[in-house]
């Protein structure tokens, strides 16, 4: 299919997002960890720290947030073809974490 690997896509889109004022404001002084679990068994972890976001493959201990989804939905979220709210309503995205964290996450995607 020639699709960009998911990890590369997420990193590229986050770099673009980190140039947006609302994203910068949302993560200023914020430190959180999250894991993304895909239906196919792959996991990725996100670390929000020092006003930036890094993504790596694999699991981490005791994340602040757990996100469950599938690759198609995650691609759509990162490419801004679907909103996080829409994905949650359609049950394509499940997020476990505090309400304040969930509100912030909307500004990242």
Summarize the model shown.
The protein has about 110 residues and is an alpha+beta fold.
Structure explained in plain terms:
The protein has helices at residues 6-17, 21-27, 71-78, 84-89, 99-108; strands at residues 32-38, 43-49, 52-57, 65-69, 94-96. It is globular, with a radius of gyration of 13 Å. The protein has 109 residues and is an alpha+beta fold. The protein has a single domain (6-108), classed as SCP2 sterol-binding domain (Nonspecific Lipid-transfer Protein, Chain A). It has five helices and five strands. It has a five-stranded mixed sheet with strand order 3-2-1-4-5.
Assess the beta-strand content as a share of residues.
25-35%
- Walk across the major sheet and give the strand order: 3-2-1-4-5
- The number of distinct β-strands equals 5
Spans where pLDDT lies below 50 across 5 or more residues: none
Largest sheet: 5 strands, mixed
CATH topology: Nonspecific Lipid-transfer Protein, Chain A
User: How many distinct helices?
Assistant: 5
**Mean pLDDT across all residues, rounded?**
90
> What is the H level of CATH, i.e. the homologous superfamily?
SCP2 sterol-binding domain
Alpha carbon gap, first and last residue: 25 Å
Overall tally of domains: 1
Output the CATH class name.
Alpha Beta
- Assign a percent range to the helix content: 25-40%
CATH architecture group name:
2-Layer Sandwich
Describe the global form: globular
Radius of gyration: 13 Å
Q: Helix- and strand-based class?
A: alpha+beta
Question: Could you outline the blueprint of secondary structure elements for this entry?
Answer:
Layout: H1 6-17, H2 21-27, E1 32-38, E2 43-49, E3 52-57, E4 65-69, H3 71-78, H4 84-89, E5 94-96, H5 99-108
Parallel strand pairs: 1-4
Antiparallel strand pairs: 1-2, 2-3, 4-5
